[in-house]
Amino acid sequence: MELKTLSKNHVNKLLDFELKNKEWFESFIEPRHKDFYSHSGVTKHIDYLLNQINSGNAFCGIVIKNNVIVARANLKNISDQKAYVGYRVGKEFTSKGVASYCLKQLIHIGKNKLNLKQLNAQVLNNNPASMHILHKFGFEAIGTTANFLKLNNKQLSCTELVLNTHNK
């Protein structure tokens, strides 16, 4: 497994990854706009993310295994030495250490390459596996927002977590 910075060269592989896992992801998070699921939609998405990277507001990566994208890993909303971590793992790669790999790499990049002092995460209450991984790496819950969003006709709460990287 290898974490690579997202680039325009990844359009086709990223589209394949997103299409293959669309239903899986939408069982946990809000669906993407239907226009996203096309070559031009993913190209626009990558262009937007590359602008975020180039302006210092994000790190956006993909995890490759056997020349296939198995996960995405991001640091977003970078400011004041803080950022939000996020990752999405393809359905067939869950429970295989991929999410732990993503989070470990994001913590390393945030602390050692971007000099971030704090990482935040948000987890919906329908995703206990992600909550478990965040706790495993030392993230601590700092609050919960009830009725954060409605997904698949269910109201979901969202827990905010924090990791102070200068202690790690």
Detailed description of the structure:
It is globular, with a radius of gyration of 15 Å. It has a 7-stranded mixed sheet, with helices on both faces. It is 34% helix and 36% strand. The two termini are 24 Å apart. It has helices at residues 11-26, 39-54, 98-113, 128-136, and strands at residues 2-5, 59-65, 68-79, 82-89, 118-124, 140-151, 154-164. The protein is built from 4 helices and 7 strands, in the order βααβββαβαββ. It is α+β, with helices and mostly antiparallel strands.
Task: Summarize the SSE layout with pairings.
Elements: E1 2-5, H1 11-26, H2 39-54, E2 59-65, E3 68-79, E4 82-89, H3 98-113, E5 118-124, H4 128-136, E6 140-151, E7 154-164
Helix pairs in contact: 1-2
Q: What's the quick description here?
A:
The protein is of the alpha+beta class. The chain is 34% helix and 36% strand.
Count of helical stretches: 4
SSE order in H/E notation?
Answer: EHHEEEHEHEE
Strand composition percent? 35-45%
Q: Fraction of residues in helices? A: 25-40%
Most strands sheet: 7 strands, mixed
Q: Give the radius of gyration.
A: 15 Å
Strand-pairing-aware structural class: alpha+beta
- Overall mean pLDDT stands at 92
Cα distance, first to last residue? 24 Å
How does the overall form come out from the CA principal axes? globular
Low-confidence blocks of residues: none
Strand order of the largest sheet: 1-2-3-4-5-7-6
Number of separate strands: 7
